[in-house]
Amino acid sequence: MGWFDVKVKLANLAAPTRTEELSLLVDTGATLSWIPRNVLERLGVTPFSRLPFTLADGRRLERDITAVLLTIDGRKAPVQVAFGEPGEAAVLGATALEGLGFVVDPVGKKLVPRDLLALASHEGRK
């Protein structure tokens, strides 16, 4: 996949007027989005958990986790994000893309909106 950046707006869920705008590298191989710690601290969000991650090169590490309100092209949703440390890339991960209803167009190097999927009915299931 070709790499490309997208502009996003982040907001504190508890204080939505506290916002930050930045560009994130689209990374469909990353489960969560990685946001620089200093950006999250400026938003006033705090970690609520610490989770393990495996990097592409096989190394394991742990990162603090929080949630923010993420907006891309008018689509807005609360998403779980990791606190990125200095020297780590700021990325937009798969769960944010799924939750906001975007698919990646690697040739056009852009995000394409799509409808979210849902189970229509439980009728007939046994």
Please give a structural write-up.
The chain is mainly beta. It has one domain: Cathepsin D, subunit A, domain 1 (Beta Barrel), CATH 2.40.70. It is about 10% helix and about 45% strand. It has 2 helices and 9 strands; from the N terminus they run E-E-E-H-E-E-E-E-H-E-E. It has helices spanning about 35-45, 95-100; strands spanning about 5-10, 20-25, 35, 50-55, 60-70, 75-85, 90, 100-105, 110-115. Strands 1, 2, 3, 4, 5, 6 and 7 form a 7-stranded mixed beta sheet that branches. Strands 8-9 form a two-stranded antiparallel sheet. It is globular and about 50 Å long.
In brief, what are we looking at here?
This protein is mostly beta strands and 126 residues long. It is built from two helices and nine strands; from the N terminus they run E-E-E-H-E-E-E-E-H-E-E.
Keywords for this entry:
single chain, 126 residues, mainly beta, Cathepsin D, subunit A, domain 1
